[in-house]
Amino acid sequence: MTRTQELLLALLGAVLLLALAWAVPWLRFVLTVALAKSLAVFGILLLLRAGQVSFGHALYLALAAYTAAFTAMLIPEALILLPVAAIASALVGLVVGLFVVRYREIFFGMLNLALSMVFYSLLEKFYSITHGTDGMRLPPLRFAGIPLEGEFQGWVLLILAVVLALGFGALVRIYLASPMGQALAGIKTRETRLEFLGVPARRVLLAAYVLAALMAGCGGAVLAMTTRLVTPALAYWTASGELVFIAILGGAGSVFGPVIGAVAFELTRVYAAALVADAWQLILGSVLLLVILFAPGGLWGMGKALLSRRKIA
Amino acid sequence: MGAWFSENGLLVGLAALDGLSYAAAVFMVAVGLNLVFGVLRVLNIAHGSLYAIGGYSAASLGLFLSSRGLPEFLAYPALVVAAALVGALLGPPIERLLLRRMQDHEPVLQLLVTFALFMILEDLQKLLWGVQPVVSDAPVRLLGTVDIPFGADVIPFNAYQLYVLPGIALATLVGLAWFLRKTLAGRMIVAVTTDREAARAMGIDAAKVTLLTFTAGAALAALGGALASPTVSLVPGVGAQTIVLSFAVVATAGLGQIEGAAIAALLIGLGRSFAVYLEPELEVVIPYVIMLAVLLVRPQGLFGVAETRRI
Amino acid sequence: MSALLSARGLKLAFGGLKAADGIDLDVMDGEFLAIIGPNGAGKTTFINMTTGYLKPQAGSIEFDGKPILGMSPRKIVALGIGRSFQLPQLFTEHTVLENAALAVAARSGIWSPFAPLMRPSIRQEAEALLDRFGLSPVADRRADALNEGARKLADIAMAVALRPRLLLMDEPTSGVAAADKMAVVETLVRVLRESRVTAVFVEHDMEVVARFADRVAVWGQGRIMALGDPQTVLNDPQVRRDVIGELPQEALHAPT
């Protein structure tokens, strides 16, 4: 696929999402949540490129969501909350990253998981500050000074999420093609060689890790502003598992994967929950199993295979 | 210090006893996880669900037996029977139908298959046992309590948690160490763990060894759940809690370490229960803090062996 | 000629096995030095110590007059010591051209995350490099789809891309089909002479050693048993008995 084709496809996708949100108003919320999560999944994609699976990436989503919630009590302005939350996430990502990039594979995954669980339990236990499992409500917000209410709020946040997804999608696409991104893939296959090329593998991984935290931070801020309620469950390890789930569901081979995966995931969840209230996890789990067993390239890979088959025929 | 101790000594004693029985249950799960990782090279996220299902099944079987007016002591064999059933019924199909098919796939896909399985099993538990707490405490009740002298005080502690849980965990530890070192079947498992291809070349049926090891690991997790079930009330989410705790134990100990897992389970079990009694806010944090501290100093875990790659 | 690399009194033991038991060696600027000796004699260990992958328990290594012991592989690479590997260390999911491009990018220090790896300047240099090694026909193949000879050459090409002054090669011809061996070595020697690289190579094939080495060092049980020009060393009766007699069978195949 050429660059122009990819760009057109991305824009077409954005228009399609907005049209869907216009046709089915209650989907606006679902799609905004999906796009917010896809921002975090871009980071999972980067780390997967290096062969590393983080089972604690929801830490950065949750951290940004809580940062947004606390900041909103002082300044309820969306255009301030977004960068503040994203930068907080990136800074914590830098500090944590300096520690975790020394580890690989299972230990990398487990350390991330442990750190996210530490954060989860702090959120849950320090009731006086965070209201524990009840979570925190965000006050009414403004966007560039205009109060966010009703329809307007839904559209503003959805469009913000679409713009962020397009922007970060393009950034990740460029990053992966650069020497930094290609070296990232080198960590997966032959880290020793990187070192003997004089390339500091840890710093290559750290850069990707911080970028991943930053993107998850943007996702967390959008999520908090959309749901207006943040709870410790955002940081629980199963939430991180969901992010990896979405990456694989959408397909880890392309920057379209995270968005396709997140939208498919949230839609399946909503419809499954409406269909059988107590078994939506069962349905999602089964979908994931089927995808892994029969379409390991994810939905993106499946779509691509269908397209190329039609071309041949 | 003296004043603090006379004030809190009782709590410390209780915490130690509680921590011991807790460590015993966690060890059973972690050791199974470790065995399975050895032969399959994948950390089975659904392993915690097997613990939960083992617990639920044991409780249901116990309640069923007593509802039929059968002798209450049958609650003990019921624990073991339930665990064996869970292992035998769930282990082979999971290994055969899912994990074996994934063996040549990327590690992340192997891991995610077990996550999908975890999601499915979590909801199955809710469908089968509901969301209300399930309690079956006959095994604890029947054995009564033991008065443990502790300084001037006496701690009444139930005999089940004092003897049965740690006793079975210890027997498992000793038995497993002996089995892996001294028996032919055990040596075969170790061979497959060390080098699957070399083991195959020596004529070992690696597929069969993997199937049996996975089933045994599943049964150990279920047994851990079954043994713990009389001491807790079972609620949804217990599987999710257990698996991350066993991850912490395995990572702290170092991959593939059996005795190490016992020591790490003790460390984490005691740490957690001291927190419960002394600083409840820290209960959930402690296991991870222990793990982080250990990995900071020893990146391969307490007993893990650092590998140097041949180039 | 002056010594580019000088090692003094290197010692390293793994448990009871003495992989280096007092190694003294000078590598002269511009020479091709072959290292021969039985398996387990410590030949690879010497390369690993020189490139920072292993740290000796005693001794010193100087490169161009500067002590390099204790430096990381990365620092040592930056000083101008390159190496290739007995088991080729290629990025297996990348094409051969991308492998070479990464090496070129690593040397030129271009790490902007906003410009593609395959920009014209890097691509041209990578293509020229592969051309010199005769690898152009396989440039677009994935590195894990190459035969052993091509993998060895690609591995060395990545080291050469860094423009080292000293190149250490660990068995550059092992695993290469007998029929291709001389062609591989000739390509290699031509490129290295063109680039004026000083080279140390571990080799089991005495034909290769005799034809291309300026000097030969014979390794045995962590020590240098003999050192000199190939003619003298390879005809020494003790070396013939102790070392050449013990070499693996494949090395005794006469090249065709």
Q: Which key terms come to mind for this protein?
A:
heterotrimer; A: 313 residues; mainly alpha; two-stranded antiparallel sheet; two-stranded antiparallel ribbon; 4 strands; 79% helix; globular; C: 256 residues; alpha/beta; Rossmann fold; 2 domains; six-stranded mixed sheet; four-stranded antiparallel sheet; disordered C terminus; ABC_transp_permease (chain A); membrane (chain A); branched-chain amino acid transmembrane transporter activity (chain A); LivM-like (chain A)
Description:
The complex is a heterotrimer of chains A (313), B (311) and C (256). Chain A has one domain (3-235). Chain A is 79% helix and 3% strand. Chain A has helices at 3-23, 27-49, 58-74, 78-100, 105-125, 127-130, 150-177, 179-196, 201-227, 237-250, 256-275, 280-294, 298-312, and strands at 136-137, 142-143, 146-147, 229-230. In chain A, the strands form 2 sheets. In chain A, strands 1-4 form a two-stranded antiparallel sheet. Chain A has a two-stranded antiparallel ribbon with strand order 2-3. In chain A, β2 and β3 (146-147) form a beta hairpin. The radius of gyration of chain A is 19 Å and the shape is globular. The mean pLDDT of chain A is 93. Chain B has one domain: ABC transporter involved in vitamin B12 uptake, BtuC (Orthogonal Bundle). Chain B has 311 residues and is mostly helical. Chain B contains 12 helices and 2 strands. Chain B has a two-stranded antiparallel ribbon. The relative contact order of chain B is 0.21. The mean pLDDT of chain B is 89. In chain B, α2 runs antiparallel to α3 (75-99) and α10 runs parallel beside α12 (285-297). With 256 residues, chain C is α/β, with parallel strands linked by helices. Chain C folds into 2 domains: 1-80 and 164-256, Rossmann fold (3-Layer(aba) Sandwich); 89-163, no CATH class. Chain C is 36% helix and 25% strand. In chain C, the strands form 2 sheets. A 6-stranded mixed β-sheet of chain C has the order 6-7-8-3-9-10, sandwiched between helices. In chain C, β1 and β2 (17-28) form a beta hairpin. In chain C, α3 (96-108) packs across α4 and α3 (96-108) packs parallel to α5. The radius of gyration of chain C is 18 Å and the shape is globular. Chain C starts with a strand and ends in a 14-residue tail after the last helix. Chain B: It is found in: Cell membrane. Chain B: One of its GO terms (cellular component) is plasma membrane.
